[in-house]
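Hi W., the calcium ion complex you wanted:
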Amino acid sequence: MSVIASSAHTDTGRRRRRNEDAFVCEPPLFAVADGMGGAQAGEVASRLAADSVREAKLGDLPSPEQTVELIREANRRVYAYSSENASTRGMGTTMTVALVEGTVVTIGHVGDSRAYLLREDQLTQLTQDHSLVAELVRSGRLSPKEAESHPRRSVITRALGTESDVEVDVFSIRAQNGDLFLLCSDGLTSMVSDEKIAQLLVAARADLDGAGEKLVAAANQAGGEDNITVVLFELEAGEPETEEETEQKLDDAKTLTEADAVPALKLAMQNSHGHRSRRATLIALALAFFVAIVGLGVFTVSTAHFIGAEPDGRVAIYQGLPFDLPGDVHLYRPVRVSARLYAAQLTLSERRRFFNNDLHSYGDTTRELSRLEGAVYP
Ligand code: CA
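Structure:
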């Protein structure tokens, strides 16, 4: 199996001033990095990580170990740099790597950039997002639809460079003739649906450069709210694999996307089949309960505050409850947005502690936010 075509595009998008994405497109090695941090730190982080992967000498290690080592080395470089340079302290980046070796494509992954496989016109998401909302969706506490507009959708739970070592997801796929792989940053996937990505790729795959341009254009047409990076590569002919292996690989990949689509709990009104008097009592009880809940709700929503992050990643204090109701009704609103503290600048333990939906008073959340800002910008 060999890489017969590859193409990479990156674009600042329509809303950001800088492009904090970086990529590697040097067969047999491909990668996408999406940097985060204050000032220009995001750019530094993603560039350092991409350079580290690009410059790596591929050794004799088996592909999975090799891929993990590439990413861990990139992590060490970003972490070392930020430890020595106060202006980039706490910066981080995502990293999704693909290494082609013979008939096997190995994917290594940290963060919320993604790898997809287009095989026989079916698009499958191969990686799982390491993001707060993806975790909530996987555990059934949020629907995929709710995740799209969640105030903390840009919070990632794993990043390169924020700690001295990093846990890497790694897996291998046995490639088939005609497989088309896509690595991309969330500037594409937060703007363009998987269905639309699949349509564009199927229609334009004969010209990989054109396909990449079309994906970027689609993200910009949808608003271009973030930097957009796409890396495409296509594989051609090699030894065919056994049917069993193919099935297993596809099953594994499909399980991933199905797990991502756990439906949210829905409140349903059920018909009562009881007597009329019993029904009247139930209705009266339900009304009383409803009035009590509304009263409690108004009180709670006005006094409760929680910490989250705005779509651009800046840490914010929200008033209200961390829930969305059907019909895009939010039970919260931002009351203070940090000028320069980004979610990605927090350590994993800080993110776990502060982005946990716990409710506090405005005073408490303000003090915590000031303390965090002081820790990152002493
Ligand atoms: Ca991004």
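The first strand starts at residue 2 and ends at 11.

W.
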